[in-house]
Each structure stands twice: as C-alpha cells, then as structure tokens.
Design a protein that fits this description.
The chain is mainly beta. It is built from two helices and seven strands. It is 15% helix and 44% strand. It is globular.
Length: 136
C-alpha cells in the first residue's frame, strides 16, 4: 500500500457564536453524508493562505481574501483510500464574520447550517477543532 502525506487547510467560519458546517454529498466513499468545516488539500506549489482562500471559496462561495484569519491549531489523521494510506496534517484557521455571509455550496455538498458548538451535528472531530479556539 502506498503511503501519502497531505497538507489540508480548514476554515472555521464563525458569526454570532455560531459555526458554519457543510454536509458532504452521498457517494460511495467513506466520506459521504457527514458534516464538516470548509476544508481541503493544499495543491502543489500553493501557499497555505492561497489554499485556504481557494477551498473556502470553492466550497461555500465566500471570498475571504481580505478577511483576518487566525491559526488556532492542527489536526492529524490517517485514512485508507484507493490503495493508499493518507496521513494528513490539517491547519485549522478561525475566520470571524460580523454578519452571516451568503453561501453558495459546491457540488460536493448538499446543505449548510450555522450551529452552536454543542449542536448534535458537531461530531468529536469537529469538537476537537472548536476546542482549539480560545474565547476571550
């Protein structure tokens, strides 16, 4: 089995103590129909900042180019997929909004919600990311 390293970026969009989560499409992978933050792999030659801006824009339609963002922590995980073991380091960024931005979902997602940190749709992985946020 081939071993592959990936770098991912994750945008935790927050407004009025609520977080934007998006639901993956139903497909034949182990990633179908779960709630996630806008995130994805950095492409070769792309900076982390460029990847974050691209992934958030592709998955939600939101342009964060001029938005302040704060690296709040990392997540690490591995999955087996397509005859490979993918080990991923994910950089988690908090991006605050004063009002709820308009959402235009990608074809990879079916719906979105703004939820509080204790919403039942927030699984343990998302809770771990949210716990990295220091609320002052």
């Amino acid at each position: 089995m081939k071993e592959v390293w990936k770098i991912c970026v994750c945008g935790i969009l927050r407004c009025n103590a609520k977080f934007l989560i998006i639901k993956r499409i139903t497909d034949n992978t182990n990633e179908s129909e779960f709630w996630e933050f806008p995130s994805g792999k950095a492409e070769f030659g792309e900076t982390v900042e460029q990847a974050l801006e691209r992934e958030v824009r592709e998955e939600t339609g939101i342009n964060i180019k001029n938005k302040k963002r704060k690296l709040i922590g990392t997540s690490e995980y591995s999955i087996e997929k397509n005859n490979e073991i993918r080990y991923t380091v994910q950089l988690n960024y908090l991006i605050d909004f004063e009002c709820f931005p308009e959402i235009e979902l990608s074809k990879e997602h079916t719906s979105y919600e703004w939820v509080k940190k204790d919403d039942i749709k927030i699984d343990n992985f998302l809770k771990e990311i949210i716990s990295q946020i220091i609320i002052k």
